[in-house]
């Protein structure tokens, strides 16, 4: 904690209170591997001789952290005043050192007490550990990472107490996570690519308290870029009764962020979406998600028949042409229609959005049917949602899902490879949709 007790800058000259040798700090980048190894061995031997643990409060690494932070702060003070401690050049210079104050900061290794130098006119603004800063930045990242895994503020607070022996209150956790709201807004409004070969629109269900706890869909738009990457375009909360107006608003927002064309948009029976797509991107083909169509078929069948149904439906969606697929489907309907008429009705209703799939090259079919990238994303979303139970507001739900998205890739954009053999698919898209994948979009 900050204190008012000033300490003379000449006190504790050896700096031995942390149990670490007072040898001058040396940049490891200037040492070769052998020297680094020798230095590490010496430090470990000293720690053992003094009965210090390697990790934990008061351990070797905590002591090193203390020394590094204090050395960095002293270097900042030297730069601020323009002279080293005790130099004659500092006399009568208008400003000078004014002792030190104790401060405890939370680090990855637990709480570490450091001595922060002060100057007489109070103009020193340290950067490595700023005024009123109680946590190193890495601690904030740990909080955000734990939140992305679905831990509540109380659970994050308990985690720090158990693992680091440090107190991080629920209010502090909330303050840290609230910092990402502005970042989330920037992410949701960032410019997008000019063209996407495929965009998938998928939903997960979350519980949100709005007077009472209700199930609400959160829609994720997931694009496949011309470079074969997954790009999570955004997240939108619905109320379960979305129609053409809602989808027109979502798609227009995506277009306004720079998306001039989408070759194929894949969805699963979302009411009003196909009509809205035509208003925003007239050339876009709306395709029913074949995987979702298969899974929805299983809902109407006994589990013992799933394998047989999947085997009998495969000739339908792997048929070379629409007439061939229609013939195979009639065979399927004759075999299963009397037992599961709802499955037959499901496919007939979705047929108009299913058949475009049959016109595509096999490489394009693979992209549309490859759902691993979507399933892995949804699995992470659902894990975080289940851990939280329900959310007090829409924003808190979106914040949790954004933190999951943010954790998927170092850039914070949630990008990842879609498939390994992308070039074959890119060539198929370029031929099938000639002129719509321009060279400028494939750089």
UniProtKB/TrEMBL annotation:
Keyword set, alphabetical order: DNA recombination, DNA-binding, Transposable element, Transposition
Entry superkingdom: Bacteria
Region described as Disordered: spans on this chain: 1-28
Stated role: Required for the transposition of the insertion element.
Family stated for the protein in its record: Belongs to the transposase mutator family.
PANTHER family xref list: MUTATOR FAMILY TRANSPOSASE (PTHR33217:SF8), TRANSPOSASE FOR INSERTION SEQUENCE ELEMENT IS1081 (PTHR33217)
Protein name: Mutator family transposase
Species for this entry: Spongisporangium articulatum
């Amino acid at each position: 904690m900050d204190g008012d007790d000033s300490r003379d800058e000449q006190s504790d000259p050896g700096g031995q209170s942390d149990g670490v040798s007072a040898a001058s700090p040396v940049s490891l980048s200037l040492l070769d591997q052998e020297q680094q190894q020798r230095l590490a061995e010496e430090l470990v031997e000293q720690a053992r001789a003094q009965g210090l643990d390697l990790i934990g409060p008061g351990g070797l690494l905590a002591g090193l952290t203390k020394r590094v932070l204090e050395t960095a702060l002293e270097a900042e003070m030297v730069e601020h005043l323009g002279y080293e401690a005790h130099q004659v050049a500092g006399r009568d210079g208008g400003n000078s050192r004014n002792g030190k104050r104790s401060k405890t900061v939370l680090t990855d290794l637990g709480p570490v007490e450091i001595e922060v130098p002060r100057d007489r006119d109070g103009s020193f603004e340290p950067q490595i550990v700023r005024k009123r800063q109680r946590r190193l930045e890495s601690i904030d990242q740990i909080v955000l990472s734990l939140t992305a895994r679905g831990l509540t503020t109380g659970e994050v607070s308990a985690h720090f107490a158990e693992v680091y022996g440090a107190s991080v209150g629920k209010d502090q956790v909330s303050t840290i996570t609230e910092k990402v709201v502005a970042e989330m807004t920037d992410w949701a409004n960032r410019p997008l690519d000019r063209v996407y070969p495929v965009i998938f629109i998928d939903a997960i269900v979350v519980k949100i308290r709005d007077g009472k706890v209700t199930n609400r869909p959160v829609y994720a738009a997931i694009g496949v870029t011309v470079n074969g990457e997954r790009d999570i375009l955004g997240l939108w909360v619905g109320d379960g009764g979305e129609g053409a107006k809602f989808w027109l608003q979502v798609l227009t927002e995506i277009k306004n962020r720079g998306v001039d064309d989408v070759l194929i948009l894949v969805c699963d029976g979302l009411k009003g979406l196909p009509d809205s797509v035509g208003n925003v991107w007239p050339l876009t083909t709306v395709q029913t998600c074949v995987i979702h169509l298969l899974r929805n078929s299983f809902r109407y069948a006994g589990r013992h028949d799933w394998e047989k149904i999947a085997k009998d439906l495969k000739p339908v969606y792997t048929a070379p042409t629409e007439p061939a697929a229609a013939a195979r489907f009639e065979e399927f309907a004759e075999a299963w229609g009397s037992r599961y008429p709802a499955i037959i009705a499901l496919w007939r209703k979705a047929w108009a959005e299913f058949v475009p799939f049959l016109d595509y090259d096999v490489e394009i079919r693979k992209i549309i049917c490859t759902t691993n990238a979507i399933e892995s994303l949804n699995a992470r979303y659902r894990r975080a949602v289940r851990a939280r139970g329900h959310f007090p507001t829409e924003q808190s739900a979106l914040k949790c899902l954004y933190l999951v998205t943010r954790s998927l890739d170092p850039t914070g954009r949630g990008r990842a490879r879609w498939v390994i053999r992308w070039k074959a698919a890119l060539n198929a898209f370029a031929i099938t949709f000639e002129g719509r994948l321009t060279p400028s979009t494939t750089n």
